[in-house]
Amino acid sequence: MAGGDEIAHTTGERESLTFICLILAVATIGGFIFGYDSGAINGTQEGLRHAQIAIGRGYDHNFCLDKGMTLEPQLAARLEDLTSGRRLDVLTTEPGLQLYTANAFDGSVRGKQGVLYRMGDGIALEPQKFPDTPNQPAFGSARLDPGRSYRHTMIYRLSVIS
């Protein structure tokens, strides 16, 4: 995640083995919860043992961006592969970012060169409103009335680390 751009995450109650949907609270993050260090998510075993990670068998969490909803896209997340030098920036006008790490991949789908995709072999960064927004007045409205338009911007920018 982009350093300092996330300030909280929405926590949920497990409704099934693979889906977290009921929002119970917004909890401030800090220290090493979820394996964060200086605004970065790391893959340390300590971070992966956190109760919220164990419930979802990986990350399936919405992060509340400190910029909130904006008119112009703002940086929400950055992924970097130091080995290849690839970088992915995600910019959005939305107030939240869902991070999902392919928790339901079970090795039954083949990818390039016949490689089987397993749990954790993918990642999704999805700009969005907060989950359960219609039932949480403090999250703002996601209502779209007939005849009205809904617009938001998300940009996935690929580059190399310089």
Walkthrough of the structure:
With 162 residues, this protein is mainly β. It has one domain (6-137, 149-160): Distorted Sandwich (Beta-galactosidase, Chain A, domain 5). Helix content is 6%, strand content 42%. The chain contains 2 helices and 12 strands, in the order ββββααββββββββ. β9 (106-110) and β10 (116-118) form a beta hairpin.
Number of discrete helical segments: 2
Please state the overall shape, judged from the principal axes of the Cα atoms.
globular
| CATH architecture title | Distorted Sandwich
Trace the largest sheet across and list its strands.
2-1-5-8-11
CATH class: Mainly Beta
The share of residues in helices is under 10%
Helix-and-strand structural type: mainly beta
Report low-confidence residues grouped into runs of 5 or more: 1-33
Count the strands?
12
Give me the oligomer status.
Answer: single chain
Write the H/E string, N to C: EEEEHHEEEEEEEE
What's the overall average pLDDT, rounded? 75
In percent terms, what proportion of residues is strand? Answer: 35-45%
**Roughly how many Å is the radius of gyration?**
17 Å
Largest sheet: 5 strands, antiparallel
Number of domains: 1
The CATH topology is Beta-galactosidase, Chain A, domain 5
Termini, distance in Å?
18 Å
